[in-house]
């Protein structure tokens, strides 16, 4: 039963013999998941369509819960964000991703560029930069190979602080991309203040780019905007050849989506790189 305007549901919990909210169940489950290795990462390749070459991987978290079954990040990231769990979770994701790439590099002969999603809550955390620096040092992962994906929402709350924080990381060699671009609050004058290298065009515009002139016009405008700000563009969620051809034609630098590859677990990722060569 939905009890209020938020996504809160009541569940009967047999073990406790009472009702607990779904939020609480997921929250407690996540704490346990972190301890019990129930979380794992998958990696989705980004592809430069013009040069036909691999340019990097986006890290996406997965949760295989013995009690709750397979959980998508859409089902638990927002709950983790309501508590401080996202901080611990985010740290685990970053460390696991960088360690995995160092390990993978022994097999494939190079360290792939990776991008890691940063929740706005993580981004606002005052210890973020120190944590990132510590993890880079500990894993010996090169900062130039790390990209952080943040949403426009993370930037608008305290732009001055955001710029400072980003510049500090950019000085190390880290790059930034704006996730779900086009769905948020950015204006042209606003965007140029932030040290951002890539705009990720939201999947909602890519979905109908073949048939919808307005969506196509929006994507073209984003590409023009990016070019004038000396930023690159990548389209999220490209699933068909028709979409990819149009995106390529209108000057989108890269694509990420099922057309090229689904997100891959570590084993599948090794196979992916073996096939590339
Ligand atoms: P996002 O950052 O926009 O990630 C892209 C989502 O689109 C991923 O869903 C990916 O699997 C999916 N996708 C990629 N290509 C296609 C396609 O061609 N078709 C379709 N239908 N979907 C495609 P996923 O992994 O379920 O993640 C959903 C959201 O959860 C992400 O959206 C991101 O906001 C968040 N998320 C995922 N992993 C993490 C993480 O490690 N940390 C944080 N803070 N958030 C994460
Ligand atoms: Ca993302
Ligand atoms: Ca998206
Ligand atoms: Ca997103």
UniProtKB/TrEMBL annotation:
It comes from the Bacteria. Residues 23-277 form the EAL domain. This is Diguanylate cyclase/phosphodiesterase with PAS/PAC sensor(S). It comes from Sulfuricurvum kujiense (strain ATCC BAA-921 / DSM 16994 / JCM 11577 / YK-1).
């Amino acid at each position: 039963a939905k009890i209020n305007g938020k996504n809160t549901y009541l569940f009967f919990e047999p073990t406790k013999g009472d009702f607990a909210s779904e939020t609480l169940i997921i929250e407690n489950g996540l704490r346990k998941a972190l301890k019990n290795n129930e979380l794992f990462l998958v990696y989705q390749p980004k592809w430069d369509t013009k040069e036909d070459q691999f340019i990097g991987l986006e890290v996406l978290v997965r949760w295989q819960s013995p009690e709750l079954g397979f959980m998508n990040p859409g089902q638990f990231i927002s709950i983790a964000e309501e508590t401080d769990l996202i901080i611990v979770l985010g740290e685990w994701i970053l460390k696991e991703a960088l360690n995995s790439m160092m390990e993978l590099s022994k097999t494939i002969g190079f360290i792939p560029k990776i991008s890691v999603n940063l929740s706005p809550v993580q981004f606002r955390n005052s210890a973020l930069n120190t944590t990132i620096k510590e993890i880079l040092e500990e894993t010996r992962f090169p900062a130039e190979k790390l990209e952080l994906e943040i949403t426009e929402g993370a930037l608008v709350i305290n732009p001055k602080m955001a710029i400072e924080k980003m510049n500090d990381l950019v000085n190390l060699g880290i790059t930034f991309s704006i996730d779900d671009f086009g769905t948020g609050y950015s204006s042209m004058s606003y965007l140029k203040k932030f040290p951002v290298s890539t705009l990720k065009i939201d999947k909602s515009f890519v979905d109908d780019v073949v048939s919808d002139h307005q969506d196509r016009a929006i994507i073209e405008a984003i590409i023009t905007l990016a070019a004038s700000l000396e930023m690159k563009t990548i389209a999220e969620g490209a699933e068909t050849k028709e979409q990819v051809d149009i995106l390529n034609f209108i000057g989108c630098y890269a694509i990420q989506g099922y057309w090229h590859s689904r997100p891959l677990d570590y084993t599948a990722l090794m196979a992916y790189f073996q096939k590339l060569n």
